[in-house]
Amino acid sequence: MLSSIYSTLPHKYAESLAYVDLVDILTAYKKYSKLTYLSNILGIRESSLSRYINGRLRPRMSRSLSLIKTLTELELVRNLVLNRLREGSIVEVLSDSIFTKLIALTILRRLTEILQGSRLENVLASSEALLIASHISHRLRSNLLNIHTVRGSRRVKNLGNTAVILVLVDYEIERFLVKIKSEGGRTDIRYIFSLVYSKEVSDLASMFSKAVVDYLVG
Predict the structure, then answer these.
(1) pTM: predicted TM-score of the whole model, two decimal places
(2) Per the domain annotation, does 112 fall within a domain?
(3) Beta-carbon count within 10 A of 104 CB
(4) What is the DSSP-derived secondary structure letter of residue 150?
(5) What residue numbers bound the domain in which 207 lies?
(6) Do 98 and 125 belong to one domain?
């Protein structure tokens, strides 16, 4: 299902985009792990990985997608982010464009599995998560809504198929989503991602029983 992210694009552009995504992901891993580690995970020689990263070797589209799929496994990304946090803060992770793209592609992979071809109408994100969410909304051609901007707005009644992307769930966000649900509009939150796990994440999961919930830290 990961291929659906690229399937609506002209082939040459899709192939180039998949390669750029792969290089960015490999670069993120290379910052906080060794090529030997990646070589063992992917079953590819270190020299080939180095040539991918440096642009001297370009895999076919199918190969790029296969490697992206492996490298966006949630547990692998979780371990990488935890390694990153040993040397810096969450704020630094969120300001690192390579890492935010890796997290966004990990979420995109999950969403394509969850949606099974249906359209994601909205991406509802906290201000801190907008860099991640913008990748997702752009790739899926969904509306991007800043939860801190639209909170309390009368126009937010029907969210339809929605993904909620947060750094940390707080009481105000929880109360806003409760309000939307209670107003009886067409709201089908399919996916909730919180970078940091907390009790409030569990509370949201219980409110929207059909939503898949993921996190990286906690």
Answers:
(1) 0.92
(2) no
(3) 24
(4) H
(5) 118-217
(6) no
Q: How many domains does the chain have?
A: 2
Instruction: Indicate whether 150 and 199 sit together in one domain.
Output: yes
Same domain, residue pair 88 and 168: no
Do both 89 and 38 map to the same domain? yes
Torsion of CA 83, 193, 200, 211, to 10 degrees: -140
Residues 44-74: b if buried by 16+ CB within 10 A, e if exposed: beeeebbebbeeeeebebeebbbbbeebbee
List per-residue pLDDT tens for the chain, 218 residues long: 678 888 888 888 999 999 999 999 999 999 888 889 999 999 999 999 999 999 888 999 999 999 999 999 999 999 999 988 988 889 998 999 999 999 999 999 999 999 888 899 999 999 999 999 999 999 999 999 998 887 766 566 677 788 999 998 888 888 888 777 777 666 788 899 999 998 888 888 888 888 899 999 98
The DSSP 8-state label assigned to residue 191 in this structure reads E
Rg (CA), the chain: 18
Do residues 143 and 202 both lie within one domain? yes
Say yes or no: 70 and 140 in one domain: no
